[in-house]
Design goal:
Length: 145
């Protein structure tokens, strides 16, 4: 697919700084690396992201997946004219995690004019699959004002 990022590189530091007051920042999501057509982030498994039974909440995995997909999609666009928003997401939760970190690896599968499709693999610290997700992103005109 080649390099998909507007300007040639994914702006990790900029996206992490903007997350501080948002949901992804509040639950500890960090973007940690990017390649030509993928990004990788991590999320702690702690009191913010566990369900009452002591394991990673499936909804937290979905937040990580959609964060990676929507921010990945946004980094392909002209931010003056377009934005990216989640349109549909599914997630298969395949392994519980009680503590530590989970890592999400998001790759663009299709980049169109009005939609993008991303696959997100979430793994535990041992590299074992925790959640497999696919997210469709809508590309919309940027709201001014």
């Amino acid at each position: 697919m080649g390099v998909i990022w507007r300007g040639g590189r994914f702006p990790l530091e900029e996206f992490n700084a903007k997350a501080e007051g948002c949901l992804n920042g509040l639950i500890g999501i960090e973007l940690i690396e990017a390649g030509d057509d993928w990004i990788r982030g991590r999320m702690p498994v702690d009191e913010r992201t566990r369900q009452p039974f002591g394991i990673l909440h499936g909804g937290a995995s979905v937040v990580l997946a959609e964060t990676l997909a929507s921010q990945g999609a946004f980094a392909t666009l002209d931010p003056e004219t377009h934005a990216s928003v989640g349109m549909e997401i599914n997630a298969n939760h395949v392994r519980p995690v009680a503590d530590g970190w989970v890592y999400g690896h998001a790759r663009a599968e299709a980049i169109g004019r009005t939609t993008q499709v991303w696959t997100i693999r979430i793994t535990n610290e041992a590299g074992k699959l925790v959640c497999l997700s696919r997210c469709t992103i809508a590309i919309v005109p940027q709201r001014k004002g």
